[in-house]
Amino acid sequence: MAKQEGHRRQSKDGEVEVEAAMEWQLDPGVASKLYDVFTVAGLRVDAIEPGRALICSFTVPPRLTEYLTCCIRSCGAIIASNPKDASKRMHGGALASLVDLVGSAVIFVGGSPTTGVSLEITISYLNAARANEEIEIDARVVGIDERTGCVTVEIRKKATGEVIAHGRHTKYLAVSSKL
Fold this sequence. Notes:
- By secondary structure, this protein is α+β, with helices and mostly antiparallel strands.
- It has 3 helices and 10 strands, in the order ββααββββαββββ.
- The protein has a single domain (15-172), classed as Hotdog Thioesterase (Thiol Ester Dehydrase, Chain A), CATH 3.10.129.10.
- It has helices spanning 18-26, 28-40, 92-109, and strands at 3-5, 8-10, 44-49, 53-59, 71-74, 77-80, 117-125, 134-144, 148-157, 163-172.
- The strands form 3 sheets. A 6-stranded antiparallel beta sheet has the order 3-4-8-9-10-7, with helices on one face. The protein has a two-stranded antiparallel ribbon with strand order 1-2. The protein has a two-stranded antiparallel ribbon with strand order 5-6.
- 22% of the residues lie in helices and 37% in strands.
């Protein structure tokens, strides 16, 4: 018999049941916060240029590499990849999250009172970052008006300056009706 413990359900032997963990993770109230924090934990702001730029640095944690993104829920089964075949490269989804989150943050630096909603995100993946490698995220405002904002986000290796990914993020910024 499983014991309820907040959002966690434990079996008799004390292990958290996968089903309960999946339900909790997919809950809309949790999912919208969980992944943002999971991705940006450890992000450091290095410089802010008011009205135009935000520069951050980040050491790629193993949790964001392909090595640890091995569990997939499919047809009621958990399928795990072979860790020996894993490359320990930063996962493309984690890079996309950085473009989204840091791109949204630079909208504030550009003077907008809101980050709005994404209209378009495009990303060119050019190289790979590896676990424990230091990267730099350079987000710059292309333009902001009363309804939209556009930014570019470049992610590069801090040691060499080699570009890992280049993103462009367009957001709808208009404030909703107060009716």
